[in-house]
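Long-time lurker. I teach an intro course on protein structure, and each term I like to show students one example going from raw sequence to a predicted 3D structure in token notation. This year I'd like something fresh instead of my usual example. Would anyone be willing to generate the tokens for the chain below so I can use it in lecture? Attribution to the forum is fine with me.
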Amino acid sequence: MAKRKRSSSYEKKMKEGYGQGIGIDYKPWITIQDVPSLGRVTRLKGYKIPRQFEFLSDLERNYFYLLEYSDLVEDIQEQYPLLPIEETIIIANELGIKHPTDLKSGELIVMTTDFLVTTKNNTEVKKFARTLKYKDELMDKRVLEKFEIERIFWERQEVDWGIVTELEVPKDRAHNIAFIHGYSNLSVIEGFENILVEELEDMSIYFIRLLLEAKQTIRQTA
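-- Reply from a regular --
Happy to contribute to a lecture. Here you go:
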């Protein structure tokens, strides 16, 4: 197959490091500025990986909370690009499926997976890819066609891939983690700026003891 000329936007993103790096140095391929028409977008600073994360739906944000709370998760890379683009073009041609294109320019666009996650269990390091989608959207034929391209791409990379819906993301648990997440750095919260780490540890032990001894909620104990 003849090599296609890559778009200027593709080359620009590559030069600026999007879709590259690990940990705090990773830059997601898609950012909120790229999708201004979406209403449920979120920026959030991570605790385990202290950088800004970009989420395009509440479902992505909630899933992120579950990932960051897991002791096994070492790295989280959101809006991860399926590169080189020639790979997904080949897969689309093999399947007889139209490759995703830019609606305005008609140019082929880089496909992405919502999350590429690195886990570590003792010394065993693994990666898995997950795409987030509300279950009702899985009835859309075009959505499933693009997912098939994505699935085969990761299969050829020997990376486990799967779809996660809102049924697999407990909303209450995500909201509880979100509440804790907001207090992950007490030093920036009013009233805690000058408290020493040792003092915070003593306070934590004290409140844990109260919770264990009393039949009250955290809010009532506090």
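Some talking points for your students: Strands lie at 42-45, 52-55, 73-81, 112-121, 124-132, 160-164. The first strand starts at residue 42 and ends at 45.
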